Amino acid sequence: MSHREHEAEAPRVLSLGVLTLSDTRDETTDKSGALLQDLFRQAGHQVVRYAVIREDPATIEATLRDWLAAPLDAIVTNGGTGLTSRDGTIEVARRLMQKELDGFGELFRLVSYHQIGPAAMLSRATAGLAAGRILICLPGSTKAVRLAVTRLILPQIGHMIREARR
Questions:
Q1: Rounded distance, CA 80 to CA 63, Å?
Q2: I want to staple 97 with a disulfide (CB 3.0 to 4.6 A). Which of 34, 88, 128, 158 is the partner?
Q3: Distance CA 130, CA 6 (A)
Q4: Is the pLDDT of residue 134 over 90?
Q5: Could you read off the pLDDT of 135-163 as tens digits, one per residue?
Q6: What is the pLDDT of residue 7?
Q7: Are strands 126-130 and 133-138 parallel, antiparallel or unpaired?
Q8: Domains recognised in the chain with CATH numbers
């Protein structure tokens, strides 16, 4: 079966969770989380969970474990993917993933490179399969969120979910 046939069989409406990781933002100032929700809803998907939590590994892990047990097709995080001492999203996410989609991070850095040049190498964005769900970790900037969602996530998330369910 070709990838086009797989995409044709992909679910059209998904139940998604949007999780913002930040020590400085809350639900009233979370522009990236709001953008994620808007882009997903405009594409016809349902955002059924949303939260802003601190960049604390124990809190991140507890929240992700709770959400991975919920009836969600995918969880998309934003924030905590950089190199600072507080950026621990990727380490927690990788502990929970059974399979990592290396191509997601590679492609995100490639399309980012075309926008921001060599600074793209500082991104540790990733995606993978965790407890039968797609888990995608994005940087916290609105520019990065828009780029990832429009260029990578929306064109393939249904296909990703189809494969995860097999």
A1: 14
A2: 128
A3: 21
A4: yes
A5: 999 999 999 999 999 999 999 999 999 99
A6: 64
A7: antiparallel
A8: 3-165 (3.40.980.10)
